[in-house]
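#lab-general

N.A. 3:47 PM
ok so I finally got the sequence cleaned up, no stray characters, all 326 residues accounted for. can someone with queue access submit it? mine expired

B.Y. 3:52 PM
send it over

N.A. 3:53 PM
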Amino acid sequence: MHSIEPITNPELEREIRARLDSLTKPPGSLGRLESLALQIGLIQRSAMPSIDRKAIVIFCADHGIVDEGVSPYPSEVTGQMVANFRAGGAAITVLCRHFGIEPVVVDMGVGRPTKNFAREPAMTRAQAEDAIALGMTHAETADVIGAGEMGIGNSTSAAALLSAFSGLDPKETAGRGTGLDDAGVTHKIEVIRRALALHKPDPNDPVGVLATLGGFEIAAIAGLILGAAQRRCVVVLDGFISCAGALVARAIAPASLDYAVFSHRSAERGHRTMLEFLNAQPLFDLDMRLGEGTGAAIGINLVESAVKLYREMATFGSAGVANREK
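B.Y. 4:20 PM
back already:
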């Protein structure tokens, strides 16, 4: 991924900051919206960034790890929710309609699950690479792309990936997922511990870690992040599952996360730890833990708001408003 470069550009940053400070407001008073506008400008290499096309790609796949009883829901729910996405009845599709975002549903392995990684690697290396490559192709979908997902059992894969990359025990990374009780969480932790002891994944081989523990949809999200960075477009991440894709993408190409906006802090137990490990600061915390890309949809709206404020607010000079004294 040698074509992925950091977004650092001191001259352009000075130009963008100068415009931000010339807008009819006290300097810095729009807070994170100002830093968002700066990030989008640096990503697009433009002093006047713009958002024209918005999309959320919802990667969907089943997981063999469900055979271990790590989810209170059966795998059939993945396919049923895909139908709900396409019918427009899911939370993510409601938000997409509201914010004018195009939902793109991608079947990465519905009814064709990964292997049970408690007993064998979830994927072959070739399967993992193919899933990453497919995710990269969807980076051409829009100017700003949200990373959504659906897959019963995928919080177990995400927790295992966080433990593998961070070295943390699964008790620090695994949570309730779609609604496990305390006994279920304890069982989930033990399943992940056994899998890590069986495979001994090497964090210096991120594709190998992904193939061993991940899901097809997590691999595709990693590819989406990498592809967005190559195209210099904005990718807005959702919660625990999509940020597991960010773990993989960063391990492959560290600068790829310069192009990512972390929308929210999920209520899923390990997400705060995951964000800290990624050195990421989310935009908001609404105690959400649905997935699908719901947090990303709200994040895209904030990105668009930041760009519109930057582009459309009057400057002190153009509005004839007196600026503060130097």
